[in-house]
Amino acid sequence: MIAETKSVSQPKTVRDYLSISARGFLMGSADVVPGVSGGTVAFVVGIYEALIDAINAVNLEFARRLLKGQWRAAFADFPWRFLLALGIGIGVAVLTMAHFLSWALTHYETLVWGFFFGLIVASIIVVLKRVRHWTPAAVVMLLAFAAAMYWLVGITPHEMPHTPLFLFLSGAVAICAMILPGISGAFILVLLGQYHYVLEAVVNQDWPTLIIVGAGCALGLLFFARVLKWLFSYHHDLTVAALIGLMIGSLRKIWPWKLTLQSEIEPDGSVIPLVQQNILPTLTVEAFLVIGLALLGLMLVVGIEWLAERGQSAAMQPVAEPIE
């Protein structure tokens, strides 16, 4: 997979920049929703390992050159164009989709979860092909991480303080989840009791809160990306199998039809579900709409993967030599 993504990390044309920003927009849109992972989107659209490589480029040598004022040398080998294009896409998605998704989850929650359920199912199918050799160890890794994720997403969220230190730590933990396929950074914020607080900060442009959370995200991202880089380098198949397990286990959270067993009322009057049980749907018009949106999400991911494979196949075709 590394070979597939190296070219993505070096944008050279306007089309390259727009392509990366579009993928970033999809990642940012997913990260806003509790239960959907931007890492899953990065995995499916083929930039996951390029993203990890780019983050790892922020190292001590890069920092040393910056502190010495050697800006040209610092950025000569640094993939800042890739990160800038991706960051713009993610930022635009967070600032724009936060309003829409907040409204959609309030009024059409089941439909939204149906669409994302289809996305994740298709993502699992696509990513299964990325394991080069299925060994007993890889199967055990998949099952173990699927079970762990299934348990994790069933944990009841707890009310936590909104102090600067806890917001900083919440950002550091959430960003680690955000770049893992299958587990949502937004859902980690839900478990830590910070999701609605941070979402309101985005909507209301509460910059002090956003800067604190962002600083925590930056620290967590730099540390965890190095762990993932090592895992991909030395234990590729086991790592991918574990990531697939996380995606499978997360389906418990994204199942569209739920029965709320326990909830709480926010100060603004909104009702927040705390404990929910997955149930089978009744065959209504809404149920068929949810199934249709799930199929749409599934076909969308499969279509993106098909186009990516077709583009790679075309790029690998040998160029015919001119006839003398």
Structural class per helix/strand content? mainly alpha
What global shape is seen? globular
User: Numbering strands along the chain, what is their spatial order in the largest sheet?
Assistant: 1-2
> Largest sheet, if any?
2 strands, antiparallel
State mean pLDDT (0 to 100 scale).
80
Indicate the proportion of strand residues.
Answer: under 5%
Give the radius of gyration: 21 Å
Number of β-strand runs: 2
Q: Are there runs of 5+ residues with pLDDT below 50, and where?
A: 1-8, 319-324
Domain tally: 1
**Helical stretch tally:** 15
Order of helices and strands: HHHHHHHHHHHHHHEEH
The helix content, as a percent range, equals over 70%
Distance between the termini: 38 Å
Structure description:
This protein is mainly α and 324 residues long. The protein has one domain (2-312). The protein is built from 15 helices and two strands. Strands 1-2 form a two-stranded antiparallel sheet. It is globular and about 65 Å long. The model is unreliable at 1-8 and 319-324 (pLDDT under 50).
Summarize this structure briefly.
It contains 15 helices and two strands. It has 324 residues and is mainly alpha-helical. α9 (136-152) runs parallel beside α14 (236-254) and α10 packs parallel to α13 (207-234).
List keywords for this structure.
324 residues, mainly alpha, two-stranded antiparallel ribbon, globular
SSE layout:
Blueprint: H1 2-5, H2 14-32, H3 38-44, H4 48-56, H5 60-67, H6 71-76, H7 80-107, H8 109-128, H9 136-152, H10 164-178, H11 185-191, H12 195-203, H13 207-234, H14 236-254, E1 258-265, E2 271-278, H15 285-316
Helix pairs in contact: 2-3, 2-7, 3-8, 4-13, 8-14, 8-15, 9-14, 10-11, 10-13, 13-14
